[in-house]
Each structure stands twice: as structure tokens, then as C-alpha cells.
């Protein structure tokens, strides 16, 4: 396992914001921590990055406890924070070359040209960082996170502020990093669509607890029994949740025949489950 989290707890003062969180990630896996604002996603990821000290539980990342990891470990991990607003006067290409040079005692960083192409910033190589658009800035954040060719990459809400095209390109980049380079990726998002597109496995975190976990297909299948059937008879509307809507509708027809009106079967989507889970 590239990372293992067992019984992780975090308290800020008197308030516990993570309660017994446990999960792991295999090499090359794209794992998504999905949850609403305040669920504890950033706290979890910051503990795994070694930026925050946990209150209790076992955490192992690339074979070490991040709380006492060293520079060699750091060089194997890539981090993209929620927002990073530094180096405004540097030019994009120079900044990446410079940051890459920090990794040379440990490994060969990405050559700047290749890296710029990978994140779609070739045209912006000569621009000053402060002149970049929000989406370009975020791509640069990702480039900074991967310049040292990390084995494990943490992405905290990476697509905030992206337009749809930038989002799609970013999703392709994440897929490529995992497939072609075998990078293990842990990504936080509050966007279900993003999680289902990107993740090999989704962990749904709400109020400091993992309430569901699985592949997007497993999560969808787990709630496939929750169809809602709506109909009306004599101007009166009804609705019913059922695990077997076909059989239920057959029953309605035999009971009401031609009286049956406004029949509608609504299949539960992953979004329905997610919303139900985070609302409770
Ligand atoms: N430094 C801190 N001191 C006290 N409480 C904090 C601190 N950082 C976060 N919290 C609280 O911990 C809880 C989890 O916050 P966290 O930022 O981990 O959530 P999140 O899921 O990343 O949310 P978002 O999607 O808004 O970034 C929240 O209730 C938050 O208010």
C-alpha cells in the first residue's frame, strides 16, 4: 500500500473533526475524498502531507509516518494546495526550472518544456505568474506539484475556478499521470461528477466520517434499489420508493388499468445517494 490510514482522529481544541477515519491506497490508484464543505477533507490530506499533527490513529505514507518524514520522503511526494499565491514576478518556465532543480539531489525532475506541454501551459512559458488567468494559475499549481515526478500526488480541490474545458483537460492530465507514470493520486473535491470521472475509488467523507466507499460503479449499484415511482389515479398523486420498479408498475397496471395516469419511474442516481448521505 502506498498509504494506510487507520483510526485517524483529529481534534481542533475541544472539537473532534475526524472520527476514526480509515482507508488505504494502492500504487497507481486515483482515490477521491469526496465531501461537502467542512467535512474534513483538507484536514485529512494535510495530515497525510505531514503539515498537520493528528490527535490519534496510525498513518503511513510511502512507508513512513508523515509526522516525522525527512527530505528524501518529501521529494517522493507532490502537493497541490488549495491556493498558492507566490512568485508573481517569476516567469512560468523559469519558475518550473528553478523548482525542478531542488529535486536534482534526489531524482531527475520533469524537463520544463515537457512539463509545460503536459499541463497545457506551453504558450504561457514566458509570462509572469501574476499575469496568468485563474485556470492557468491552477495548471501552474499542478505543474509545481508534479515537477519532481512524485510517486504520490495530493491534490486539494484542484479544479476550483476552472472553466469546463480546463476541467476536462485537467481530468485527462490526472488520468495520464496515473496510467502512464503510475502516480498514486489522492484528490479532494466536493463535486460528485468530478469524483466519478476521475476516481478508481471514491471515499465519501461527511462530518469527519467515511460514510461510503467504493468504485463509482459499486456506489451506484449499492443504491440501485432506490427507484421512485410516481403516478396518479382520480387526480390524486402518489409516490413510492421501491427496489423493483418493474414489478411494482406491473402491480399498478393490474390494480388500476386505464385509470392509471402520469406514470413516472425515476432511477436513483449516484447524486441522489450522495446528497442523501451528506444531508444526514
Ligand atoms: N485550524 C483550524 N482550527 C479549528 N478548526 C478548524 C481548523 N481548520 C479546520 N477546522 C474545522 O475543521 C472542520 C473540517 O475542516 P476542513 O477544512 O478539513 O474541511 P474540508 O472538507 O476541507 O472543507 P472545504 O471543502 O470547505 O475545504 C471544519 O469544521 C473546520 O471549521
Automatic annotation (TrEMBL):
Subcellular location: Cell membrane
InterPro entries referenced in this protein's UniProt entry, alphabetically: AAA+_ATPase (IPR003593), ABC_transporter-like_ATP-bd (IPR003439), ABC_transporter-like_CS (IPR017871), ABC_transporter_ATP-binding (IPR050763), P-loop_NTPase (IPR027417)
Domain ABC transporter residue range list: 3-232
UniProt keyword annotation of Nucleotide-binding present: yes
One GO cellular component term: plasma membrane
Keywords: Antibiotic resistance, ATP-binding, Nucleotide-binding, Transport
GO molecular function: ATP binding; ATP hydrolysis activity
Membrane topology designation: Peripheral membrane protein
Protein name from the UniProt record: ABC transporter ATP-binding protein
Amino acid at each position: 500500500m502506498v498509504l494506510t490510514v487507520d483510526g485517524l482522529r483529529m481534534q481542533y481544541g475541544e472539537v473532534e473533526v475526524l472520527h476514526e477515519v480509515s482507508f488505504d491506497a494502492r500504487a497507481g490508484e486515483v482515490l477521491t475524498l469526496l465531501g461537502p464543505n467542512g467535512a474534513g477533507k483538507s484536514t485529512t490530506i494535510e495530515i497525510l502531507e505531514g503539515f498537520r499533527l493528528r490527535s490519534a490513529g496510525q498513518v503511513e505514507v510511502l512507508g513512513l509516518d508523515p509526522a516525522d518524514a525527512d527530505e528524501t520522503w518529501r521529494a517522493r511526494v507532490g502537493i497541490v494546495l488549495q491556493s498558492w499565491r507566490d512568485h508573481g514576478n517569476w516567469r512560468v518556465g523559469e519558475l518550473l526550472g528553478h523548482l525542478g532543480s531542488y529535486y536534482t539531489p534526489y531524482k531527475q525532475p520533469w524537463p520544463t518544456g515537457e512539463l509545460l506541454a503536459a499541463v497545457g501551459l506551453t504558450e504561457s512559458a514566458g509570462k509572469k505568474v501574476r499575469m496568468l488567468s485563474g485556470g492557468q494559475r491552477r495548471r501552474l499549481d499542478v505543474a509545481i506539484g508534479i515537477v519532481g515526478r512524485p510517486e504520490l500526488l495530493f491534490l486539494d480541490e484542484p479544479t476550483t475556478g476552472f472553466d469546463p474545458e480546463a476541467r476536462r483537460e485537467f481530468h485527462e492530465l490526472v488520468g495520464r499521470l496515473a496510467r502512464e507514470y503510475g502516480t498514486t493520486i489522492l484528490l479532494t473535491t466536493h463535486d460528485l461528477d468530478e469524483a466519478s470521472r476521475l476516481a478508481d475509488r471514491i471515499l465519501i467523507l461527511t462530518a469527519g466520517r467515511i460514510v461510503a466507499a467504493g468504485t463509482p460503479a459499486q456506489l451506484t449499484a449499492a443504491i440501485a434499489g432506490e427507484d421512485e415511482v410516481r403516478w396518479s389515479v382520480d387526480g390524486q398523486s402518489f409516490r413510492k420508493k421501491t427496489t423493483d420498479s418493474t414489478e411494482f408498475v406491473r402491480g399498478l397496471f393490474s390494480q388500476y388499468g386505464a385509470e392509471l395516469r402520469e406514470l413516472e419511474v425515476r432511477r436513483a442516481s449516484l447524486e441522489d445517494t450522495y446528497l442523501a448521505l451528506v444531508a444526514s
